[in-house]
Design brief:
four-stranded mixed sheet; flat
Length: 674
C-alpha cells in the first residue's frame, strides 16, 4: 500500500509537471539537483504556488541546518522508505506539491539530494524575482573595486542585463593559483591559472597517451555537460582503440569504462569478444571486470557465449575461492540452455565447497541453471536434501529458498524433502526461513493429504505464539488451502480456551483487518474470504467488525469487504448491511428495476424499513419492490463523478445478491445481534 501511495504521488507530480512543460525556468540548471529543482519550479508555477513551495523548502532547510543528524537520516540507505516518509510528515505541514515532490524523491532514492535541490530552487526563485548571484572565486580576497569592475564588465557584456539586482560574492580558493572563476546561473567563466595549466597538461598527456581511467571518464562527463554527447562519442572512439591493445590491463580499463557507458544506454555488444578476453585474464581484478561486463551485456543470442564454456569450467575448478565466486555469479546471469547443460555438473560439484558463501552461491546458480535445463533437476534435488542439514544456517536458508523457488512450478519433485522440512519447521527460529517452509507445505499438503494431521500441531503453535504478521499470514493461508483447519484436534486460544484450529485462525485474522496498516487489512480480508469458503459460520461471527471496514478510505479494502459480507447476510443482518452500503452508493438512471424478478417475501425481514431506504432511479421510482427484491439492470454500469464506479457497481451487485430469497437462515448462524 505504501508503494501504491508513493506511486500515486509520483504520478500526480509527474502529471503536474507535464502540464506545465512549456513554463520555462528563468535559469538552466544542470545535475540531479538542478533537474529536480527545475521540475518542482515548473509544477509550482502552474499552480501559482511558487512562494508557498519556497516557504516549505526554507522551513525544511532550517530544520536540516539545525539538526545535522536529520540530513544523515535522509541519505542513509539503512532506513526504509516508509520510515523516511513518516519522518518527512513529522517535519510539519507542507503543500500538496511539496508533499508529492518529496514522495518522488523518496521513490527515486534521491533524498540525499534534498539540500542541493533546495539550494537550486532558491537560485531559480532569485532569478524569477530578477536577482542574480555572481560568485567570484579567487586565490586571494578581492577588494570592492575589483568586485565592482567584475560586475560592470558583466553588465556591459550583456550577460546580466535582464536582472534587476546583482549580488557579487567573493570566495577564496588558493588551489586556483591565480586569476578568477566567475559563476552565475548556468554560466561559468574560468580564467584561473590552474585551469590554464590543466589545459596545457592535457595537451601534453594526450600527445603521449590517450588512456583514461573510469574515474577520468566520470569526471569528464561532469565537466562536459554542455557537449555530453560529443564527449561520449570521443570516449567511445578511444575505447575502441584501447580494446585492440595487447596490454590486458589497458583492455580491462577500457571494458570497465564501456560497462559504465552501457549503463547510460550505449551499446557494447560490439566488444563481446574483448569482454571474453578480459574474463580469461589471470589477474582477479581484470577477470572480475570481464565477468561483470558479461553479466551486463551478454544475452541468449550472444555469439561468443559458446567460447566461455571452458573458461567458466576452469574458473569453477579454481583453488582461488574468489575466482569460483565470480564465475558462479557470472554463469547465473549469462547461462543459456547449452551452457546450463555443459556446466551444471561443475556447479553441483561446488555445492560441497568448504566455504559457506561459495555453497550458497552454488545453490543459487544451480537453481538458475535447472530453469534453463530442466532435465538436470533430478541431479539437484538430492544435493538440496543434503544442504538442508548443512552446519551453516545461511546455507540451509539458501537451500530452502531454492526449493521454494522451484517447487512453485511442480511440487511433486520435492515430497522426498518433507521430513527435513518438517524438522526445520519445528526447530528453526528464523522467521524468514519459516515463512518459506510454511509456503512450501501449502503446495505439498494438497498432493499428500496425510501431511494435514502432521502439520496441525506445529502450525497451530505458530499461529498461537508468533508476533510476526508475515509468518502468521502464511500459517493461516497454509492451514486453509491445505485443509489443516479440517483436522478435528483442539487447540488453545490466547485465553486458554480450547477451540478448533479454524476458530483460532478466524480470531487471529482480526489482527489483520483491524490493523492501521492498509496492507495488513487488505491481506486479512482476502484470507477471511478464503476461510469463508470453508467455514462461513466462523466468518459470520465477525460480522460487525468486518462491516466497520466499509468505512475505510481505501477502495481496494472496501471491495474485499463487499466480497466477504456478500456471503454473510441473514434475516437479521440484511437491513443494517444495506443501510451501511447505501450512503456509499450514489445511483443514477443507469440502475433500473426489473419487475420480472420478484422474490417471495420472508416473514423475518422488515419490508417497511427496507422499502424506506433511499434507493430510487432518476425519475424517483423506488428500486425496491414491495416484496423487498432489488435488481441491477443487466449490461449497465453505475456512473458517479465523485466515487469509484467499479466499487459502486460491486456495492450495488452486493445489495442485489442479498435479496430475501437468497439469504441464509438465522438458525444456522451465530447470534450477532448484540
Amino acid at each position: 500500500m505504501f508503494r501504491q501511495t508513493l506511486r500515486a504521488g509520483k504520478i500526480q507530480f509527474a502529471r503536474g509537471y507535464a502540464s506545465v512543460a512549456r513554463t520555462k525556468a528563468p535559469l538552466t540548471l544542470f545535475g540531479i539537483d538542478g533537474k529536480y529543482a527545475t521540475a518542482l519550479f515548473q509544477a509550482a508555477a502552474s499552480k501559482n504556488a511558487l512562494t508557498t513551495v519556497e516557504g516549505d523548502l526554507l522551513k525544511l532547510d532550517e530544520q536540516l541546518s539545525k539538526d545535522a543528524k536529520l540530513g544523515e537520516i535522509f541519505s542513509s540507505p539503512l532506513l526504509n522508505k516508509a520510515a523516511k516518509e513518516k519522518l518527512i510528515d513529522s517535519l510539519g505541514k507542507k503543500s500538496e506539491i511539496t508533499t508529492n515532490f518529496f514522495k518522488t524523491l523518496l521513490e527515486n532514492n534521491r533524498m540525499a539530494e534534498t539540500r542541493g535541490v533546495i539550494a537550486a530552487y532558491k537560485s531559480l526563485m532569485e532569478a524569477h524575482r530578477g536577482i542574480v548571484s555572481v560568485v567570484v572565486t579567487s586565490a586571494n580576497a578581492l577588494n570592492s573595486k575589483d568586485l565592482k569592475q567584475v560586475k560592470d564588465n558583466l553588465t556591459k557584456g550583456g550577460l546580466i542585463k535582464d536582472f534587476k539586482e546583482v549580488n557579487v560574492v567573493n570566495k577564496i580558493n588558493p588551489s586556483i593559483l591565480g586569476g578568477m572563476v566567475v559563476e552565475f546561473g548556468d554560466y561559468t567563466i574560468d580564467m584561473s591559472v590552474a585551469s590554464r595549466l590543466a589545459k596545457i597538461e592535457k595537451l601534453l598527456t594526450d600527445s603521449i597517451s590517450f588512456e583514461k581511467t573510469l574515474t577520468d571518464l566520470i569526471q569528464g562527463l561532469r565537466a562536459n555537460k554542455r557537449n555530453e554527447t560529443e564527449y561520449i562519442q570521443q570516449s567511445l572512439s578511444e575505447i575502441q582503440r584501447e580494446v585492440q591493445q595487447s596490454d590486458m590491463s589497458q583492455k580491462s580499463v577500457a571494458i570497465d569504462k564501456l560497462g559504465y557507458l552501457h549503463m547510460l544506454g550505449y551499446d557494447m555488444n560490439w566488444a563481446s569478444f574483448n569482454v571474453v578476453e578480459v574474463m580469461a585474464s589471470p589477474r582477479f581484478g581484470e577477470k572480475r571486470t570481464g565477468y561483470l561486463a558479461a553479466g551486463q551485456s551478454f544475452h541468449q543470442e550472444t555469439d561468443v557465449l559458446m567460447l566461455t564454456t571452458n573458461l567458466i569450467h576452469k574458473d569453477l575448478a579454481s583453488a582461488n575461492a574468489m575466482e569460483v565466486s565470480v564465475a558462479l555469479d557470472g554463469l547465473a546471469q549469462v547461462a543459456t540452455r547449452d551452457l546450463a547443460q555443459d556446466l551444471l555438473g561443475d556447479t553441483l560439484a561446488v555445492v560441497g565447497h568448504p566455504r559457506p558463501y561459495i555453497r550458497k552461491q552454488a545453490l543459487v546458480c544451480a537453481c538458475r541453471l535447472v530453469t534453463r535445463y530442466t532435465e538436470g533437476l533430478h541431479e539437484l534435488v538430492p544435493l538440496l536434501k543434503e544442504r538442508l542439514d548443512d552446519p551453516d544456517p545461511a546455507v540451509v536458508a539458501s537451500a530452502v529458498s531454492v526449493v521454494c523457488e522451484l517447487a512453485h512450478a511442480n511440487p511433486h519433485h520435492y515430497l522426498s524433502l518433507v521430513s527435513k522440512l518438517y524438522r526445520l519447521l519445528t526447530s528453526s527460529k528464523n522467521n524468514w526461513m519459516l515463512i518459506k517452509i510454511v509456503k512450501l507445505f501449502a503446495w505439498l499438503t494438497p498432493i499428500e493429504p496425510r501431511l494435514a494431521k502432521k502439520l496441525h500441531g506445529p502450525l497451530s503453535q505458530l499461529v498461537s505464539t508468533t508476533a510476526a504478521m508475515s509468518l502468521l499470514y502464511e500459517c493461516i493461508h497454509t492451514a486453509v488451502v491445505g485443509g489443516i483447519i479440517d483436522v478435528q484436534l483442539p487447540v488453545s486460544d490466547s485465553t486458554g480456551r480450547e477451540v478448533d484450529f479454524a476458530e483460532l485462525c478466524a480470531q487471529k485474522l482480526e489482527l489483520f483487518y483491524e490493523s492501521p496498516d492498509h496492507n495488513l487489512r487488505y491481506v486479512g480480508l482476502v484470507m477471511l474470504a478464503q476461510l469463508q469458503a470453508h467455514r462461513p459460520e466462523l466468518v459470520a461471527a465477525h460480522y460487525h467488525t468486518v462491516l466497520r471496514c466499509l468505512d475505510d478510505p481505501d477502495v481496494s479494502i472496501r471491495m474485499r469487504v463487499i466480497e466477504v459480507i456478500s456471503g454473510m447476510p441473514t434475516c437479521k443482518t440484511l437491513v443494517p448491511t444495506v443501510k451501511h452500503l447505501m450512503p456509499q452508493l450514489v445511483l443514477s438512471n443507469t440502475v433500473a428495476l426489473q419487475p420480472d424478478r420478484i422474490a417471495t417475501t420472508t416473514a423475518d425481514v422488515d419490508l417497511d424499513e427496507l422499502q424506506s431506504l433511499p434507493l430510487t432511479d432518476a425519475a424517483g421510482t423506488s428500486l425496491v419492490s414491495v416484496h423487498g427484491s432489488m435488481v441491477l439492470a443487466r449490461g449497465v454500469g453505475i456512473s458517479n463523478a465523485t466515487g469509484n464506479p467499479k466499487y459502486q457497481l460491486a456495492a450495488a451487485e452486493a445489495i442485489v445478491a442479498m435479496s430475501p430469497m437468497d439469504i441464509a437462515s438465522d438458525e444456522d448462524m451465530p447470534d450477532i445481534s448484540k
